[in-house]
Amino acid sequence: MFALLHGPKWFKHPLELAPLRWLGAISYSLYIWHMPLALLFFGYFFPYIHNRSYAVQYIISFLWIVIVILPFSVLSYRLAEKPGIRFGEYILRRMEKQKKLPDVIQNEDTKIGHIDATTTQDEDITMIAIRAVQ
């Protein structure tokens, strides 16, 4: 991780390419759905191709990934994850407007200060920084 953040440009540049960033965006959906869909493939379709050569098995497995698993993951990202992220951002904005965040941190009857909360948006990621101010 340190090498990616502070390493030379030639090391970081390939990982900043659009296809890898897209794959990173859908990576959670891909992680969640790859195993159930792979089990579906191996349970129902693989028995029909198990007597074929390894090359044919590999090509058909790869096609299953490209034709079924990737599109399913993209749909899951767009229909479930992205709206969930937007809803979470909406809730945070609403809480900031209504000042639902506590004004004071109490520690054994000692007033430490108030909470300063800020949000920053970096493409698909929203970060919240909360710090106690005296």
TrEMBL record:
Keywords: Membrane, Transmembrane, Transmembrane helix. The lineage of its organism: Bacteria, Bacillati, Chloroflexota, Ktedonobacteria, Ktedonobacterales. Pfam families: Acyl_transf_3. Residues 2-77 form the Acyltransferase domain. The chain crosses the membrane at residues 20-46, 58-77. It comes from the Bacteria. One of its GO terms (molecular function) is acyltransferase activity, transferring groups other than amino-acyl groups. This is Acyltransferase 3 domain-containing protein. InterPro entries: Acyl_transf_3_dom (IPR002656).
